[in-house]
Amino acid sequence: MKSYPLLDVRITTPTLELRGATDNLLDELADAVRAGKTHADPAPYDDPMSFYETDPDLRVAKWLRAIWRGRGKVGPEAWRLYFVVVVDGHPVGMQDLIGIDFPTFGTVTSFSWLADDQRGRGLGHEMRAAILHLAFDGLGSKEASSDAFVDNHGSNAISRGLGYEPNGSDWATRQDEPALLNRWRLTRDNWEQGRRDDIQLHNIEACHAGLPLL
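-> structure tokens emitted (214 positions)
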């Protein structure tokens, strides 16, 4: 997309690709959202979350509006990059990268979801590894964080496997009920120890031109 080059940023690994979340890709992915393939038990998302909407069409509308709002915020105080996870040419989920006061702290966090019929194949680990490569190698991040409810065993295992260290706990609500979160922290030094050479960044210059970085 010539007028918004951040959407042309891509990250590729041997098994998947993260593509900038264009409206065309989101439209393809909307079928999974409408069908409820974002759901899991126990629920992995804190409040507020459009995926908790019970009406399928309204769920898609709220999800899209949230992405459009977030896509338009690109400032030093906050930015968010939205990527669609593509496997064998088909969109199967999303992987986001978020910076808060990035020029000051150089830290990022991530958010992701994967369609329920794609789980258990190692894709969650691979898409997180891909977004971390963008964060550290592409954007010069100093540190990455993640959090997950204590009963979200998959997300916690991914963080542990990628070299994150436990960083305390916190409370959040999900569907209006309190739930405990594990917090995780990955330093640049720890990421470097497991750095991969089979992840490729494409059109990364758009990030340097369009994002307030260090």
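The mean pLDDT is 96.
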